[in-house]
Structure formats: structure tokens, C-alpha cells
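User: Quick sanity check before I run a bigger batch. Here is a single chain. Can you write out its predicted 3D structure?
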Amino acid sequence: MTATIAPTQPKRLTLQVEHLGDQTTVIRSLDWDRDRFDIEFGLQNGTTYNSFLIQGDKTALVDTSHAKFRELYLPQIQELIDLTQLDYLIISHTEPDHSGLVRDILALAPQVTVVGSKVALQFLDNFIHRPYERLQVKQGDKIDLGQGHILEFISAPNLHWPDTILTWDHGSKILFTCDVFGMHYCRERLYDESLTEIEEDFRYYYDCLMGPNARSVLAALKRMAPLGQPRLIATGHGPLLQHYIPDWLDRYQQWSQEQSQAGNTIAVFYTADYGDSDRISQAIAHGATKAGATVEMVDMKSADLQEVRELVERSQGLVVGMPPVTGEFAPHTRAVVGTILGSVQAKQRVGLFESGGGEDESIHVLAAKFRDLGLETAFPHLRWTGAPTPATYQRAEEAGTDLGQWVNRDRTIQQMKALDNDLDRALGRLSGGLYIITAKQGERSGAMLASWVAQASFQPLGLTIAVAKDRAIEALMQVGDHFVLNVLEAGNYQHLMKHFLKRFAPGDDRFAGVKTQTASNGAPILTEALAYLECTVATRMECSDHWIVYATVDTGRVAKPEGLTAVHHRKVGNHY
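Assistant: Done. Predicted structure follows.
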């Protein structure tokens, strides 16, 4: 059965209801148009918020939906079940896109027992502000709904919130995972019929939200293993996973092992569900992982002080989001900050960001304390007014990349020296043209000097570009994105090359002082370029430290027909 209810608001919001068998139903809230920018929405394919109903002798609802779906979700759930007979409401985690209607469900079902981790129930208290029946669960705890539906809970902190639990139904062999194994991909197709259609979204979501918590991912996978392979992975976002389960599981295992062994460690401290601390910290962490750093994220509300001390002592870089100075958790977050200050070493670098929660600790006071302890600043303090914009998130991601490059600087030098001298010189004889890649999406923009560019196809016209994973512009070159390839002219490129080779601070305008005009796809064209090509990213291939981007060519123009392309001759192959 599929039920579609027309929304009253102009945004494209629809509801889909499907029976999964084994007395289990999914209610999918389809959000076709994202209405805010978060880093994990970079592919711009919308999203879904998936909620599940399990009906044995007792009934359980796993997660709710985003508050924007109130007018659609609540009538639908009441058609499916008499809410006065609902026994359990399982909170996989308390982020508003999954728990936005918990208060409404409690009003309609005051008898229901809310099930969650200790941290989830603490978070829930802060926005429910009413008494309710509760059941705190931990790793291995079970609830018997009858008719074979024994629900077992798996502790999965930091995936990607500190309060996350997964739910395994022994009767149906369905694993309810909330954010884990999810993706922001909105289609009415219920399952993962086409791996190639969604694998870019799957990887992008992992990189943004799970990669910075790779060690926690590995720990959760280890806890899941004794339960066996699920017949269905019921995700909180995107399609349900049924057809390629071993492949999806293997990818999480492989990516997380690679990420956890990637490089030196950066500890990112944030305050969950306070201001924009979650999102800004995710953007910073994503930037750091792009640069090959291992990131460990810690929620200061629930952090163990001994674990904080151990993490700080083994980290090369630190990032701290300003916690609130008042409220229930303020004494503990102060203790966490004090533990960080008492554990740091002068050889570390630290970056600070405001959380925008209205009660932030002073960033200047904390910066002075770190400075007195001998720590240098990793990047300029991240501050903003009003709600974060796409440019804010870009600046945060670039700040994380800068810190990631710094903590791995010695490893990078060692890798450069490790190449055999003869091979190094021979590889350096590969030459290429000189180009500037430019891109712009709303408030976000980027540019990159490139020489690893080649035509790749005639029909359609296509080219490939090798983009290092830690380049800022990589975030603007996802599948479907548009960019301009500016061809530099021999004898007239040095000033442009010098400009785009300089190190920009996070968020700096790459085009300040450069003459540009706007292409039909919105990207900047360099006025002094010999020629330009407007391109659309068609696919990407991962190659260790680079992405090979294949793009189709939409249009182009030559400014000087008699001009020649600038050529870049290298002497060694271990760097550009």
C-alpha cells in the first residue's frame, strides 16, 4: 500500500507508506527540496525521514519524523494504529529530523513508554518538558513484543550523535539503523535496486557524518556482528537496503578501517543539541578527514573526563566549540574544558569556534588560556552572526582541512622522500597544460590551479581532472555540479598562477583582485584566460589521495585563436 497526501505548504513534502512484511510498516516522509544547507546535503538530492511501526502482541514505533511533516505524518500514523494502544516509542537518537514529532506523539499517546539510551533520554528531557514513561536501554538489552519480535538494542554512540542506538528485530531480521548506512536521497523507489545510482550519495553521507567517527563505526560493526546479517537494513534516511547488504557493510568496514589508520589525530569537542555546534563541528571534521587526519568527535555534555584526558594527550590537533555557560550541563562542560586545558601540550595546535547558542563561553578568554599554555592557533576563530550560511560551512570545512594538513605535515614529507630517485625523475617528465578550475554555488565558491587534465571522450565530449582530496574545491565538484575549466595562455599566465597558488585562509575570496565574468552555469570565467570550457561532473573515481573527476563539456569559447596553452614541465613526480 502506498499513501500519498498532498501538502498544504508550497514545499514538496509527501508521505509514503509501505508494508515490509513481518508485521512491519515504514512511513517515509519525502522531503524533495532541502530548505537549509548542511554539509551532508551537498549532493542536493533531497532526503527522506523514515519511521517504522512493528506490530506484535505489543506495538513499537521506531523514530518519528521532522516537525515540518506534522500535518502529514500525524493523521497517517493514526490511520495505521490507535495511538492509545501504542506500547513503545523507540528513540534511535534525538536529532530533530527523527524526533521532531515526539512531543506530539506523547500528547496523543501519554501511556507510551519511551525507549532510548541514557544520553538520549537526558536530551529528550530538555525539549519535551513534561513527564513520560521511560525505559533506559544499553548494549544487549531486549524488549519482547510477542509473535517473535524480540528487539535487541545495540549501543552506537557518536554515529553520528552521542545518544545513538540501533535496534535489531530477531523475528524479522530487520536492523533499524537511523543515520547509520543512510543517505540523503529522495525517490519514491523504496529499496536499493540500483547500486550505481545511489553509491555516490552513500559515500558522500558516510564521508560527512560517519568518517569523522570511524573508530566508533568499527566498534558498532563489531557489536552488530554476533547478530548475523540482516535481511533488511531499515535506514533513517534514503532507500531501505536489501539488495546489496554485504557490499554496504563491507564498504563501511573498509572505509572506517582506512580512516581510523589514516594519520595523526584531531580531537573535536562540541556540545550536542546546542546552537549550531553539531553542524559546525561536522564541517570541521569533514575537512580534516579530507586531509587524511583521523578525527575523534566528543560531545562535551556526556564526555567521560578520563577519556577526554587520554584523547587530548594522544592528539596532535584540537578543536573546541564554545559550550554554554549556563544550563543543566554547564558544570560538566566546564569540567571537560578544564580537563582539556590540563592535558594539552605546547606542540599541539588548537582551533576554536563559536556555537551560536546564545550562552557561549567567551572565545577570547578560552583562546588566551590556550595561548598561555603555549599552543598556537590552528585557524582564525570561527565566528558568525545570525544563522550559519553555506559560506560559513565552507569556511569551517576549509579550517578543518588546514588543521588536517598541519598534523600530517611530517608524513607528507616522508611520502615525498620515499619515491625512488630514478622513478621520481622519470615520472616528473610527464607534462600537462596549465588550467584554473573555477566553481560557484550560491555563496560558496572555489578555484584551483590544475595540470592533471586530459580529454577523455568524443561522444559525449568529456574530460578528466585529478583533484586532490584535500582541495577545497573538491566539495564543489560532486556529481551533477558545474564548473569552468579556464585554459591559461603561454607567456601570460604567471600572475594568475601565482595568485591561485598562494595559501588562502579559510573562507577567503579566491577571486579578489582577479577579473572575472559569469558563465552560463554560474561559475566564474577568468577574463584573461586563453579559452574556457563549461563542464558538468558526470562521475568520479577514487584513487587513494585524489579523485578522478570525469565531466561532460557543455560549451566553450576561445578568446585568442592564435594563442597557445601554457605547459607545466616538472622535474620530479612526487609533487605538483
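Residues 1-10 have pLDDT under 50 and may be disordered.

User: Great, the batch can go ahead then.
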